[in-house]
Amino acid sequence: MSSPTPETSSEALLGAADIRELAAVLGVRPTKQRGQNFVIDANTVRRIVRTAEVRPDDVVVEVGPGLGSLTLALLEVADRVTAVEIDDVLAAALPATIAARMPGRAERFALVNSDAMQVRELPGPPPTALVANLPYNVAVPVLLHMLDTFPTIERTLVMVQSEVADRLAAEPGSKVYGVPSVKANWYADVKRAGAIGRKVFWPAPNVDSGLVALVRRAEPVPTAAAKEDVFAVVDAAFAQRRKTLRAALAGWAGSAAAAETALVAAGVSPQARGEALTVEEFARIAEHRPADAPRNDLRGAHQRPAVRTAAEGERGQR
To answer: Mean pLDDT across the stretch 241-248?
Structure first.
């Protein structure tokens, strides 16, 4: 068995001392406001890559690479990696870090210095996988935006706040099943894929982290309704989740009576609540929206944070 080359050994990855040194050189002081909790453990980023099932032919897009901990681990395995980084200082430094630590893979790395929510295209071949440590308070909208914008993404693994991970992977009937659960399931089969301890970050966050794996649906949700119309039903149903769907969808349908008619036509009990419905059932309801219903409902809700938590101020981890 041959010895590992420097580019496929832990020497190429960033450890705690490397992260602190890079941060000092760049004048970066990790703060909650900037979402700068950097991964300092090589075993953790390799575990993320394994869990994501990254393959040698994958074109991976990474959101929020920070100082490059996960980026380097992805480059060890994937064919290409494109990183999307909003921070100008971090974005400017990342190519040099890649070139210094993995010179043989540097040409397979691309950088987009932008807000991920504004990204509509990426350089190079279409991405096949998304792997990211997402800022907590924008994790859901960023995830949904990327899945919607890049339909070639087949597999996704994201690290998010543990509570958000639970919500994304929740099934109908669960207490934490809600808007993120349904919208993520529109695109993919979703499951929890593990937990990440606090000590692998610098500085250590005040909340636990979780991994969520998403595999894009082989076939789209069978419906004649547009995604925006389905999401409008979801938003309305969970805006007043304690109410029955007859009441919660009254504004969406134009009246409670009109909502009941639409629900019955869709084969859904008017006395049910949103937390009991599958994405397919929400889609059926959308198909039966009254033609004269008001059209002032909220659209594009995936562009706003969809989860609020007690730890909302604890932003993402790099």
So the answer is: 95
